[in-house]
Design brief:
The protein is an alpha+beta fold. It is about 30% helix and about 15% strand. It is built from four helices and five strands. Strand 1 and strand 2 form a beta hairpin. It is globular. It starts with about 25 loop residues before the first helix and ends with a helix.
Length: about 150
């Protein structure tokens, strides 16, 4: 990722005691790896996927290292679900029929949920991540965030 991009954000708001030193998502939470942050509260971070399936593809993670989504309990589970609704509303800007929610968990050992704007299943059948230029990610970020200005 280009380090000189003004919209890439280093997070840095975290409790390092609950993070894994080798986890890529924990590195994003600690601010060691920049991201296009869409939403954040004390428990959750949402950011654009750098290899999106569709424009606006966002990943939501707990700010505590939990390996599997199904291990999330109680209040944190509720807070993540409330955050999903907030992020879903932000992604409505792409005028897609649905904001699809996926829990996959093969590649990264940190609980995460994908929110993917799509019109129908045909768009999602291949669920292939795309390598896109950083400028396209930045434009997507700006489009999502312009409602907050």
């Amino acid at each position: 990722m280009e380090e000189n991009n003004n919209n890439l954000q280093n997070n840095g708001n975290c409790d390092n005691n609950n993070l894994n030193s080798d986890c890529v998502f924990c590195k994003i939470i600690r601010g060691e790896t920049p991201c296009f942050k869409i939403y954040e509260n004390e428990h959750v971070l949402a950011f654009l996927d750098i290899r999106p399936v569709s424009q606006g593809h966002t990943i939501i993670i707990p700010k505590k290292h939990i390996k599997n989504y199904f291990d999330i309990e109680g209040e944190l589970f509720s807070k993540i679900n409330n955050s999903l609704k907030i992020v879903k509303n932000k992604l409505q800007i792409f005028n897609k029929k649905n904001i699809c929610q996926f829990i996959i968990g093969f590649d990264i050992d940190h609980a995460h949920i994908h929110l993917v704007p799509a019109n129908d299943m045909i768009e999602l059948n291949n669920f292939k991540n795309q390598d896109i230029p950083m400028v396209e990610l930045e434009n997507t970020y700006k489009k999502i965030m312009e409602d907050e200005i």
